[in-house]
Amino acid sequence: MNYQLFHGDCLAHLRSIDSQSVDATICDPPYNVGFEYSEYNDVNDQYEQWCAEWMAELKRVTSGVIAISVGQANLSMWARIAPPTWWIAWWKPSAMGRCVVGFNNWEPIAVYGKPKKAGCDVIRAMITPDATVKGHPCPKPKEWAIKQIEAFTEPSDTVLDIFMGSGTTGVGCVELDRNYMGIELDADYFALSKKNIERAYKRVNGYRLQGHATDTLDLPLFA
Question: Does residue 218 fall inside a structural domain?
Fold first, then answer.
């Protein structure tokens, strides 16, 4: 399997990827709700335009399903940018987030394209304590990635993630025998992703992943 991690701007790197060269995209972008990340604040006056730009690139490079966790606050915006083929509900039992009716136990995932196999439009992934993602303010649980990778791809497919965060989707790809290409803007989260994906590779394969680290946008972290 091949794992390529890139530290830099997602749009800049997306434009260097060949058309229809990845089998699926699974990603979790910032929601533009004022969240404080390590190196930047999650507020962008041009948020909708920015999302439309990288979505256009995802459609160009992805031959199969594109799955985006969009956040409840952005449902109407995504209907304007690119109406999804379908919506999936991520059910997160026992979550303690607040909403207008009390507790929020689900989040929307916009799905573009038709999966290779029939499945369910609800995925269950509980948020549980995980020391490996310490340092990231809002990591997704591994089951969130595993369920989508299983639903939208086959072994040896290539999965793209343009907002790596703590590396959850990359770890899922290692465990499920998928190729992975990830992009992360924040240097701290890039380092965290690298560490977690390499740890998963060592656990699954029994030895340390060979390669070299780089902050250069166009060079793979792992060859």
Answer: no
